[in-house]
Amino acid sequence: MSCVSVSVGVGQDGVTNRALTLLRTMQFLGRKKKLVSNPKTVLYAQPLQFYGQPPLENISLSEFESFAVDRLKLLKTVENLGVSYVKYSEQYSKKLEAELKTLNFPYRTEVDEPEKQRKDHISHFILRLAYCQTEDLRRWFIQQEVDLFRYRFNELNCKKKLEFLHNNNLQYNTISVEEKNHLKEKLLNSSYGINGVTLEEQDFYKVPFQDALDLVRTRKVYLKEGYAYIPHNEIVTIVLNDFRTRLSKALALTARSLPAVHSDERLQPLLNHLSHSYLGQDYSVQKNVGKISLEQIDSLAGKSFPLCMRQLHQALRDNHHLRHGGRMQYGLFLKGIGLSLEQALQFWRMEFIRGKVDADKFDKAYAYSVRHMFGKEGKRADYTPYSCMKVILSNPPSQGDYHGCPFRHSDPELLKQKLQFYKVSPSGVNQILDLVKGMHYQLACQKYFELTHN
């Protein structure tokens, strides 16, 4: 990591140097970069980049803010499209291209657009400052940036893809024609979307299998002696793994610079505002308090709860108990839809007493955690409900647990039985299972809601 030293403060022309100084500390770890006489010329001439070189100029505070807000709008669009459409489908791509065009980001990879490239480059680094602050923020930022990167990489023609690999020193070994012919039958049987004609036309890359776990998990590549044989049309998966790893390391490094950010009274409020924007509904102030009653919960669970919460509610009613992961996921959800602290304590106490927990034990062992969710104990943080991505990606359930995402964590046959029990039509069940098979868990959840609400 290198850090370029510049003066701190805002000059007469209203430019901020402190922010750019911090951005320059956020270089990726890894391969050494070649020094060039004019880095901007190289950076902004490329249709796609790994964001390995930080900005090398000063920008005004107004431009700093407008760039950041526009990129947040773009990333929120990426998130919404990923929920509403199959990722990288024709509809998904058209709508994302339209948003890129509207917000003045690069959207035509064959056109040299240095001003748009500049905006793309600087705005990415600004959001690193805002979204490196917590694990949840980092996870959200990485996921949206990876999805955006994948769309852009797929838009490159074959020549541009090869140029990108070369410019970023991504040297993958292609197998020889002799080895490809020798493995022809196995490559045809194990490589997704490859036939006899495309096999002859495409290069295959031999990489360590751990660099292609996404393809291995979905059984899209041939494995032999610890190596995966990847067709050129799937090389994006390897590039994405590299991009994700670099970005994750860069965010960790950026987090170390936060004390310097927090010492600047102009930047701190702006970055805090950015980090709380476009991440869904804000539950920090309970606007829904009192809008539901305890008597409504059973009815709402069967009619309107997402499947993960319906599953937790049913398990609680059946067993009169939930383990910690389930209590946190369901408890924060109930808080988010309007249950007050007093109602929440009454709800959990009544249910646990029906099981093997008496009132005294509940008050000693469980009431504290309920109050903690509402920011009345411990560090007094007012916790928000889990996002879909947090439910899907973190803390998978073990035996005896009921939290997590049913579409992500359930056995397909058990999920099928559950959907049938909830009176989802046979065709609807098949549609949901197809989405689950393609790892479109949020789309599967949305489809379940649509099918159960006509």
UniProtKB/TrEMBL annotation:
Its cofactor is [4Fe-4S] cluster. The keyword Transit peptide does not apply. Residues 299-454 form the DNA primase large subunit C-terminal domain. It holds the Pfam family DNA_primase_lrg. CDD domains: PriL_PriS_Eukaryotic. Keywords: 4Fe-4S, DNA replication, DNA-binding, Iron, Iron-sulfur, Metal-binding, Primosome. InterPro entries: DNA_primase_C (IPR058560), DNA_primase_lsu_euk (IPR016558), DNA_primase_lsu_euk/arc (IPR007238). Belongs to the eukaryotic-type primase large subunit family. This is DNA primase large subunit. It comes from Ataeniobius toweri. The lineage of its organism: Eukaryota, Metazoa, Chordata, Craniata, Vertebrata.
